[in-house]
Write a structure and sequence with these properties.
By secondary structure, the protein is mostly helical. It has a domain at 3-66. It has helices at 3-66, 69-93, 96-99, 102-123. The longest helix is centred in the N-terminal third of the chain and has 64 residues, at 3-66. It is elongated, with a radius of gyration of 38 Å.
């Protein structure tokens, strides 16, 4: 048999034996171990969510119980008044009540431009 053929056969045999050894290690040792670890993680994760939910609900209930009743009355009345005022202003004046009119925006730009040019001249 010629030398090149012996080298080719040796390389093929080496590659096949390495692949068999690695695939055996993967399927017989690593894969079952990973499956076991994944199951443990899934079981741990399933237990976390109910505990967190229960803890949040308990914490919120405790916090709400500690707030005095008169604090609820004042907070709801004030926030309702502010919300109604905001809504009526928005309804009557539109978005310009919050954003300003086009004339006001142009005036502000002119004022900013004058202030910027005045600063540059005073520094010279």
């Amino acid at each position: 048999m010629p030398m090149w053929m012996q080298m080719t056969v040796q390389v093929v045999i080496t590659v096949v034996s390495v692949l068999v050894a690695l695939s055996g290690f993967w399927y017989l040792i690593v894969r079952p171990w990973l499956a076991l670890k994944v199951q443990e993680i899934i079981q741990a994760a399933e237990g976390i969510e109910p505990k967190v939910t229960q803890g949040v609900q308990k914490g919120m209930a405790d916090a709400v119980r500690q707030i005095p009743q008169n604090a609820w009355d004042g907070a709801t009345k004030d926030s309702t008044k502010q919300f109604l005022k905001f809504g009526s202003s928005l309804f009557e004046n539109g978005l310009s009540s919050f954003l300003g009119s086009a004339a006001e925006m142009q005036q502000a730009r002119r004022d900013d431009g004058k202030a910027a040019s005045g600063e540059g001249e005073s520094q010279r």
